[in-house]
Fold each of these.
Amino acid sequence: VMTQSPATLSASPGERATLSCRASQSVSSDLAWYQQKPGQTPRLLIYDASTRAAGVPPRFTGSGSGTEFTLTISSLQSEDFAVYYCQQYNIWPVFGQGTKVEIK
Amino acid sequence: QVHLQESGPGLVKPSESLSLTCTVSGGSINNDFWTWIRQPAGKALEWIGRVYPSGNTNYNPSLMSRVTMSIDTSKNQFSLKLDSVTAADTAVYYCARDLRPAMGWFDSWGQGILVTVSS
């Protein structure tokens, strides 16, 4: 089970956002993060816990290992307001329930 | 850049089978690993399973009894069949690419197809 917190994060453009993802058992570094905007396909941001996917801006940073993971957006841009999912792939792929980042 | 496109019926009756096809273009289906993922409205993503170029498969244990995936490398297509559907199977179904031989992440996705289970 992957548990994401908070369920909703309200923040202003320019602020720092910190999203958490917790695994019920260790998944090593087998963790990815995705961004999904309304009506759109999920977009891969981070894999192997901390490697940015091609074309992802450096304001997105992934960290953690084992059971605790974090996605940090250093300075929120207008296009970053979306839902973010973590996904572990240590055994079979399991997604978290998502964190919605909304404009404060 | 690889492109994926789902196709199939948008409406399926309860107790019947859902069948979808994903067509891969811009790359060879022989090189990577191919996945189905679904998302009920307003809910999280759920991995359904994966098919290898060889035809081998891995399925989500919670759906394993009802899922069959297959691949046709000559057509650059892979398919999903989900049996005995109920309203709980209503969702947007995505096909996606996984680059890792072991389970991995999904870097390319189809646009998704809404499948509604209703009589």
Amino acid sequence: AQSVTQLDSQVPVFEEAPVELRCNYSSSVSVYLFWYVQYPNQGLQLLLKYLSGSTLVESINGFEAEFNKSQTSFHLRKPSVHISDTAEYFCAVSGTGRRALTFGSGTRLQVQP
Amino acid sequence: DGGITQSPKYLFRKEGQNVTLSCEQNLNHDAMYWYRQDPGQGLRLIYYSQIVNDFQKGDIAEGYSVSREKKESFPLTVTSAQKNPTAFYLCASRHTPSGTDTQYFGPGTRLTVL
């Protein structure tokens, strides 16, 4: 069985400040790891993913995440956030035979001016 | 443009009614999924299908049914047996030969029971 824990349900931060959204997972098999972003009343958009290779992955809008196998973590970071980053962020893993994703409960990032 | 469409965007259901949510994709993806989203609970898997004419139950299939008669379409029926159907429903698809497990999501349908 797999599980994903997002340790913070809400993260308030001021504009231009750095942010880290935490994600820990458990799995008995090798995993792929994902971060998705959801804006209000919309579907999920893929932000970035770790499949193999370099443990640091980056998105086109300045987010990055680092896969840490020993700590079973995949934390999401951004050095300077914008108001437009306000959204809910979901961490997800896959690796079972059904190839479906297991999601964390989400972290709501609230960027304040 | 390639993508996943879901309709309707908002749906209202009376007690005891069955309703069907549409999901269509033109990405030529083999696998399709239905998730339910409730506040503070993330997404939970209802049903999934990896090929046409085949589908499997997910973690919360009770009170739901699906069909997969065409590669492009994976409709979800919420039956009267579903005790608490008010939620946001998300459809996703995946290109299975790529082996990356990356799923792409539709815009969602918000179902409210009156």
